[in-house]
Amino acid sequence: VKSLLREAVNRVHAFFHKNQFDQELNDEIRAHLAMAIEENVQRGLSAEEARRQALVRFGGVQQAVEQHREDRGLPWLDVLGQDLRFTFRTLSRDRGFTIVAVLILALGIGANIAVFSVVNTILLRSLPFHNSEELVRIVEKDPKAGESSKTYTADATQDFQQQNRSFQSVSGYFAFTAPDNFKLVRNGQPIPVTGILVAEGFFQTLGVEPSVGRLFRPEEFVQHAQPVALLSYPFWKRRFGSDRNIIGKTINLSNTPVTITGVLPEIFDFGSVFSPGAKIDLFTPYIMDDFRDDGNDLALVARLKRGVSLQQAQNETDQLFPQLLAVHKHPEYGKPYTGQLTRLKEYVSGKLHRSLIVLWCAVGLILLIVCVNLSNLLLARTMARGKEFAMRRALGAGRGRLVRQILTESLILATAGAVLGLGLAYLILLYLAHQESIALPLLAMVRVDGAALGWTLLITLAAALLFGSAAGIRMSNNKLQEILKDSGPGASGSKKHDRMRATLVITEVALASVLLVGAGLLLRSFLRVLDVDLGFEPSRAAAISVDYDDGGNVAKRAAIWQEIVERGSMIPGVEAAGISDNLPMSRNRSWGIAAKGEEKSGPLNFVPIFVYIVSPGYLKAMGMRLVEGRDVSWTDILNDRSVVILNETVARTLWPGQDAIGRLAIAGGQEATVIGVIDDVRESGAEDNAGAQMYLPATKMFRPEGANLVLRTKLPPASLAGSVMRTLRQLNPGQPATEFKPIQGLVDRSTSPRRFFVLLVGTFACLGLALASLGIFGVISYSVVQQRQEIGIRIALGATQARVQLDVIGKTLRLVLVGVAIGTVAALGVARLIASLLFQTAPSDPLTFAGMIVLLGIVALLAGYLPARRASKIEPMVALRTN
Amino acid sequence: MPDSKLGLLQGTLDVMVLRILDVMGPLHGYGIARRIEQESGDQVLLNQGTIYASLVRLQQRGWITAEWGTSENNRKAKFYSITKAGHKQLARDTAYWQRLADIVGRVLAMQGEGGEQ
Question: What is the mean pLDDT of residues A25-36?
Fold first, then answer.
């Protein structure tokens, strides 16, 4: 063993010191021959004969040197080096082919790396928390009422924290934070910032350690404690220039002095896990006693004890939750709780599972098409080089050596493609990671990492083997003489070649049609989603979060609201203005509603309903449609009238078959008269059902949570941003520089995952189509070149140009038709698999399939037309003379 | 087949080189080659050049070492000498070859008897 090891080391050494070894060997051989000649001369031979005999006895200097090299170094590496050098030479000679091949591969491999990284980040990799598989999220079993049924009250949370035996810790965060809910005043300038209230032990539960300073202490979670805050890393970097001295200092946060206790680590991105796309700037303590009387507002995250299974914990949860009281002081409030445990990872990305797998498959198809295409190109090249290979075989190169040569070539191409592809993927991911408009969890954390590099290596090798082997097998099966003889058309070798290439093109077309159908179905679904009647008009409406200080006085608030709305509607270009605390498709909260008289039979008769506290004009500004009745009025607000506007669905639920106007409802514990009914509004997203909604005037019974001024404009909203901010600053100099956001943005955000997938799959389909057309074009051109003489003869015999063109195009269409037929069958199967991702679109949507066939037909015509034209322009005399 | 013949020769050559260095002390390539030819009464068809592949092999396994020196005729040459590990290897090889020769001899002898009956 020792000697083997030593030999290996010595071989490597010798490999790297070739010249020195060769030099010494030369000296040795020279000395050897000199001694031999000397001895021969002494034996009485003539100088010439002595030399001849010495050389004969030595037996070939070159062979000795070769054998020496083989026995001391790494011969296989030498051969590899030779292959590489040779390949680089041939590839640089054939620059056009090399560039096309590398570019195609770079696209295919790059797309695969990018998609793999996304899949890995969102689906495969565990969350960036310590022992993240122990983390679970707790929500209601049937979360019908939006965020409100995914959250719990302070009292219920505390009870569960004390009673459970399954968890190391249970904590949560305040789930109803609107963006820009705080304003930070520095150097006199108010800046909007977004802060999340977190319950005691939240960061400890997740296992997050601060990068600077400390986490909150228990005494900071009691009422009237010194206010404190933790900064997120990006916020610290952006606003405070990563200044470590900020710890312990006080900042002015919404007119309160707040002490900064620490900075969270860079890898902790609250938004990307819990609220995709949101940028969170800081965290403050959620003080339970401040929220005792409020509804559900804590989103619970818990860490399982070691050795406790999810099922065990679920059993305990099922026992405890129904007994939890929403509010200790009011045991009569609310329905009994339920609690569904879901692993945090599953909760965050589980819904995306299928979409991501589909995406992964689509991009895999692209790589397959790329390989088939490359196979085709290489095959053409091998064919063109057939004689070269045959010659080398004839000169003694082994079959294995030649196959190795071809595989080396494909490996080099694949590697070059992979390097370029990595660059491409890096750019794509850089772009994706900064797309806050795409509401996909964890996307902000996506980057090319070790796993992605491993994946790159794997697909590169697989691709190289796949596309290299066709040419390799083909080449090694060649019969020497046939190739050397085969110079004209009609030889059996080229017929076989044609068939192989045709098969590859058919495969390519079939794969492309599957991709096209998939992309088409998803696109149709997306268009259907865009077509959905949302119940409001997002275009030309925009909202801005408004800051005001009413000192807790309801009358003062009403006056401020009225002034804001009136001044807002006077801004030139504004058609309507109104205020609401919540906007559709963003933050929501829900209460319960019942027809008066029904509420007595218990809390179960209350329907969960989304709550919007509004000013007059809001419905109009949003473009919501009153079916009957009237909007709320300032008189309602100033006189504290208890009135409510419902959407059609809930009106019909509470009073089936009757007119709801004028009836009494118990809404949020208050008796309210129904004054209006509006068309259903898609509250959670275009693809979800409307659910129940109510709109209440901002009176003393109904407290708004913040205020969004919504304006409907004749002009593009962006052009009004300046004048809107100026107006708000006139009313309140402390108005922070919040953004004037188009309502369309909210809708786009809710459809962004679908758009993301459609865009990617669509891009892949286009890529597949382009590659397939390239493949068709290549094969047909090649066959035209091969049949030059035949075509020449036919033209000489009187075939018209049109006739020749038709023949070539006909051949193209036949190829494509076979591919499309196979592809259609495969696509029918695939479509059924993605049926759950479709929206109001049948998996066998005839329009999509017809579109795919027409599209591929057109592409085939185009790809076949150029070679057909070339064929018809063949000069018979030239074609027959040259070969 | 040239391959199998070479394999056998290789092994044989290596053990002969070791033995010669063991008996004769430090020697250069030409000297070793001549020695083998003389010892075998010129019955071995040896391409002297192949000795160098054998020498580099043995050297890389650490069984012999090499040093540049001056020959009896005042010529610069590389002198090889056997190492401790080389002695051990030679002992192993010797035992192996003797056993092999023994067995082959016996088997061949047995076949001879069978043929007569």
Answer: 89
Q: What are the pLDDT digits (tens) for A67-81?
A: 888 888 888 888 888
Confidence at residue A879, expressed as pLDDT on a 0 to 100 scale = 75
* Per-residue CA distances from B52 to A380, B17, B47, B60, B88 (Å): 46, 11, 10, 12, 22
Which of A518, A594, A570 is CA-nearest to residue A845? A518
Question: Rounded to whole angstroms, how far apart are CA atoms A421 and A460?
Answer: 10
Inform me whether the pLDDT recorded for B116 exceeds 70: no
Cβ contacts of A687 within 8 Å, gap of 6 or more: A529, A532, A754, A839
Q: Which of chain A's residues have a Cβ under 8 Å away from the Cβ of B53?
A: 64, 67-68, 70-72
List the 48-77 stretch of B: residues with Cβ below 8 A of A.
Answer: 48-50, 52-54, 56-57, 59-63, 71, 73, 75-77
> With bands split at pLDDT 50, 70 and 90, how would you rate the model's confidence at A108?
very high
Q: Is the ipTM of this complex over 0.90?
A: no
Query: Cβ neighbours of residue A147 under 8 Å, at least 6 residues apart?
Result: A175, A176, A299, A587, A588, A589, A590
pLDDT number for residue A360: 92
Integer Cα distance of A122 and A183 in angstroms = 33
CA distance A874 to A781: 13
Q: Is the pTM of this model over 0.90?
A: no
Q: What is the SS3 assignment for A170?
A: strand
Locate A759 and state its tokens: 């865009």
Q: Does B2 touch chain A (CB under 8 A)?
A: no
Q: Do A59 and B49 touch (CB under 8 A)?
A: yes
Cα–Cα dist A820/A807, whole Å:
20
Confidence check: pLDDT of A332 > 80:
no
Q: Which residue of B has its CA nearest to A14?
A: B60
DSSP code of residue A278: -
Q: Where are the alpha helices (DSSP H) in A599-716?
A: 618-622, 634-638, 648-654
Instruction: Quote the CA–CA distance of A139 and A150 in Å, as a whole number.
Output: 4
* Residues of chain A contacting residue B36, judged by C-beta atoms under 8 Å apart: none
A689's enclosing H/E stretch is: none
> What is residue A484's predicted lDDT score, i.e. its pLDDT?
63
What is the C-alpha to C-alpha distance for residues A518 and A834, in angstroms, rounded to an integer?
A: 8
What is the SS3 assignment for A624? coil
As a whole number of angstroms, the distance between CA A712 and CA A565 comes to 12
Mean pLDDT of B61-66: 90
- Shortest Cα distance from B99 to chain A (angstroms)? 23
Contacts with A21 from chain B: Cβ below 8 Å: 56
Whole-angstrom distance, CA of residue A281 vs CA of residue A184? 11
Residue A448 β-bridge partners: none
CB contact (8 A) between residue B60 and residue A6: yes
CB atoms within 10 A of CB A120: 18
pLDDT of res. B3: 37
Q: Which of A94-103, A171-180, A477-486, A619-628 is predicted with the least confidence, judged by mean pLDDT?
A: A477-486
Query: What do you get for the CA distance between the two ends of chain B, in Å?
Result: 34
State yes or no: pLDDT of A418 exceeds 70. Answer: yes
CA distance A634 to A617: 10
* Ramachandran area for residue A479 (φ above 0: left; ψ -120 to 50: alpha; else beta): beta
Residues pairing with A260 in the sheet? A229
| Residue A635 DSSP one-character state | H
Q: Which two tokens stand for residue A163?
A: 């009673």
Give which of A661, A694, A684, A672 is closest to A591, Cα–Cα. Answer: A694
Beta strand A670-678 pairing with A643-647 = parallel
A688 in contact with B, Cβ within 8 Å? no
Residue B2 has pLDDT above 50, yes or no: no
Would you say residue B111 has pLDDT above 70? no
Residue A594 β-bridge partners? A666
- A26: contact with B, CB 8 A cutoff: no
